[in-house]
Specification:
Blueprint (H helix, E strand, L loop, with lengths): L2 H4 L8 E5 L4 H12 L4 E6 L2 H11 L4 E5 L5 H15 L4 E4 L16 H28 L5 E5 L12 H21 L5 E7 L5 H7 L3 H8 L12 H12 L10 E4 L6
Parallel strand pairs: 1-2, 1-4, 2-3, 4-5, 5-6, 6-7
Family: Belongs to the short-chain dehydrogenases/reductases (SDR) family.
InterPro entries: NAD(P)-bd_dom_sf, SDR_fam
Pfam families: adh_short_C2 (PF13561)
Length: 261
Amino acid sequence: MTETTLHKKKLEGKLAIVTGGASGIGEATAHLFAKHGARMVVIADIQEELGHQVANSIGLNHSTYIRCDVTDEEQVKAMVEWTVKNYGQLDIMFSNARIFSRLNQTVLNLDLLALDHLFAINVRGMAVCVKHAARAMVEGHVRGSTVCTASVAANQGSTKNTDYFMSKHAVLGLVRSASRQLGEHGIRVNCISSSVIATPMACSVSGMDAEQVEKACEPHASLKGVVLKVGHVACAVLFLASDDSGFLNGHNVVVDGGWVD
């Protein structure tokens, strides 16, 4: 492998949308996409101030912010259409907007209003983003890549946070179905599943600071001496978005350091 190959920009000239791109995994991925040559990264989020900050830090020649609430299908549709109209085509959709369960949700005390709110973002919002990205790719004859944020929760159960675990199982089902349906158009759909990362959202929900979150998660990883950071997940998303994973479809890439319950 030559040095040129090693340092090749993986997304040269590509157009990408990152939902939930104003912080955490989305922010890190947006920066990495731009670093790897994406000609434009659209930051879609409801956090306006943070969204503008991310776009400005990347550089407005290569990034822009658009407010989009993924629970509103019309906003998602308009965001995708605006992107295609202004930049020509959509190559990559990183459907990353999601929330955590804030309640100790068990089956016996399941709060269905809270479940509905969480599902509106984590499941319905994810499906809407995949739907409209796929339509734009099919209409534009683009062999695109869609990556969804799932979780290690998609492969296991829990004694609490039932609604969150349910939602991540649904994301995995969406990816497995969409990949089979869209593969005939040359569109790949995959997902990324990480264990807990000390993002601002995770810290807010847990009531712990980043160091405390990382310390609490450390015993669960069989891989020692490494702390999971947003950059690890962003690199895995880049792999799935790029031609490096050109024959991966319907795949769930797990980034958990060998998570052991």
